[in-house]
Design goal:
The chain has about 525 residues and is an alpha+beta fold. It has a single domain, classed as Cytochrome P450 (Cytochrome p450), CATH 1.10.630.10. The protein has 21 helices and nine strands. About 0% of the residues have low confidence.
């Protein structure tokens, strides 16, 4: 008898925990997918059939006339926001209802991860954002540009110094070393050259730092008690300790010896002393893709972070690494690949680079780079077709109701803790907004055409006050390396260049299986 009672109890708990939630949106009058228990819509990922982007794209395309649709990644009810006006409404106008990202890790188990800007929630996030925003303005990026440009020059020189006229390079590895070196110099205050010294500790530890996959995220999402019991973290203990040691030693040396360097550490140390202001900046912004900074975060009187600690600085430098290492290197890999297959676009961009170089007597400055219109068009198109993050989430922090607009809609309630998804890549490749979306076409961002882009259909760095704080930095590091490479090389296809991609199933980014090869032909 006891066995049947226990079996019934287990069955009820299974139904309540894993079956009942799968009708979440149907009960609220919204259309939804047909999920399975435990992993919801993510079973094809575990079975190696689809990527997370494939699943989201399938859902997005299956409901072309709907403003939103429900699906269940990892069995969690999640609303896909398909309509640009609805995205604006939830991420900007009613941002105070959706201020947070989805939380995976308890602060007590991963102090470094939980203290960074991406992971912070509520007032702590708002105060940290207000504290950090003055360090990421265009004028501050202008001061930091020299470090970025030096690294980009070193990257191009490495290949220039080779004897061969045609050098085959694997883009994923090469650009990951470039972004690593930019971040090492700009965020951690140390100079490394990961092409000349491929096994340097900073690069190898950084690679270790970013090795978290969908399997690990699934464990946090589905089995949080197991993750908690085994004290799983997003950031490996050894990698975290390595970067903490570097940062604390650098801060100590600079404070004792009063060393000043135009890098992120210096800006954060100045911030720590209350010496960085969010001034009205006359400096021209870095490009079309640059995100807007919103007044409710820049004008906030910070209390919680009025005394920025060394641990706070370390956490922000770490998320800077996590956000900039794989994302921009991946976008650069795809962008360079696109240019190799589009020689007319490449030649037009090279002509602008050469003319700019000659007009400025070979000197590259922040102003020369950001004033290059066609370079901005090309980089904007790279971020359209290959956004660094294919999707972004927002967690409801105050109960909210999406009011009906279309005839077949009803009011849809979103409760505290429930998640909405911004389908960035799907919007960027929607033919309603970008005709022939698979075509690489920088003319979409010409002066004549960019005003026709529907607002909130181009969001490579997110939307609203919770957008990417470092978009200016990312754009500069991408443009700088393209400038120096195209000044000296022609990108061409070789026998090793593939004509199609297969993507890793267990990655939440669009990572290619295997290698991406092109040739650098000296001019």
């Amino acid at each position: 008898m006891l066995f049947y009672v226990l079996a019934g109890l287990v069955a009820f708990l299974f139904w309540y925990k894993f079956i009942r939630p799968l009708e979440h949106f149907t009960k609220r009058g919204a259309k939804q997918s047909k999920p399975w228990p435990l992993l919801g819509d993510d079973w094809p990922i575990l079975l190696g059939q689809k990527t997370a982007t494939n699943i989201l794209t399938g859902m997005y395309n299956s409901y072309p006339n709907d403003r939103y649709v429900g699906f269940y990644p990892l069995s969690q009810p999640t609303l896909i926001l398909r309509d640009p006006e609805l995205i604006k409404q939830l991420t900007v106008k009613d941002f105070d209802h959706f201020t947070d990202h989805r939380k995976f890790v308890d602060a007590e188990h991963d102090r470094l991860w939980s203290a960074n800007l991406f992971a912070l929630n509520g007032e702590k996030w708002k105060e940290m954002r207000a504290t950090l925003s003055p360090s990421f303005t265009s004028s501050k990026m202008r001061h930091m540009f020299g470090l970025i440009n030096d690294t980009a020059q070193d990257f191009a020189k490495y290949f220039q110094n080779k004897k061969e006229n045609l050098i085959e390079i694997e883009l994923k590895d090469s650009f990951s070393r470039y972004t690593n070196d930019v971040i090492a110099s700009s965020a951690f205050g140390i100079k490394v050259n990961s092409l000349q010294n491929p096994k340097n500790d900073f690069y190898l530890t950084g690679k270790q730092l970013i090795q978290f996959s969908l399997l690990r995220i699934m464990c946090f999402a589905i089995l949080p008690m197991v993750a908690k019991f085994f004290r799983l973290t997003f950031i490996s203990k050894s990698a975290g300790e390595y970067f903490e040691s570097i940062m604390h030693e650098t801060i100590k040396t600079r404070e004792e010896k009063k060393i000043v360097r135009n890098d992120m550490i210096n800006l954060l140390l100045e911030n720590k002393k209350g010496k960085v202001s969010n001034e009205a900046e006359p400096t021209k912004d870095t490009g079309y893709s640059t995100v807007k900074e919103y007044s409710d975060t820049t004008k906030l009187k910070s209390k919680y972070y009025e005394n920025l600690t060394n641990d706070d600085i370390t956490s922000q430098a770490l998320v800077f690494f996590l956000a900039g290492f794989d994302t921009i290197s991946t976008a650069l890999s795809y962008g360079t690949y696109e240019l190799a297959f589009n020689p007319d676009i490449q030649e037009k961009l090279r002509k602008e680079i050469q003319e700019t170089h000659e007009a400025n007597n070979g000197k590259v400055t922040y102003e020369t780079l950001v004033n290059m219109k066609y370079l901005d068009m090309v980089f904007s198109e790279i971020l359209r077709k290959w956004p660094p993050i294919p999707a972004m989430d927002r967690t409801c922090t105050k109960n909210y109701t999406i009011q009906p607009v279309n005839e077949d809609e009803v009011p849809v309630d979103i409760k505290v803790g429930e998640v909405c998804t911004l389908p960035i890549m799907q919007l960027h490749r929607d033919p309603r907004y970008y005709p022939n979306p698979e075509k690489f076409d920088p003319e979409r961002f010409s002066d004549e055409n960019k005003d026709r882009i529907v607002p909130y259909t181009y969001i490579p760095f997110g939307s609203g006050p919770r957008n990417c704080i470092a978009s200016r930095f990312a754009i500069l590091e991408g443009k700088a390396v393209l400038y120096h490479l195209l000044l000296n090389f022609k990108f061409i296809t070789t026998k090793r260049t593939t004509t199609s991609f297969k993507f890793e199933k267990l990655s939440f980014q669009n990572k290619v299986v295997g290698s991406i090869w092109i040739g650098l032909e000296k001019l």
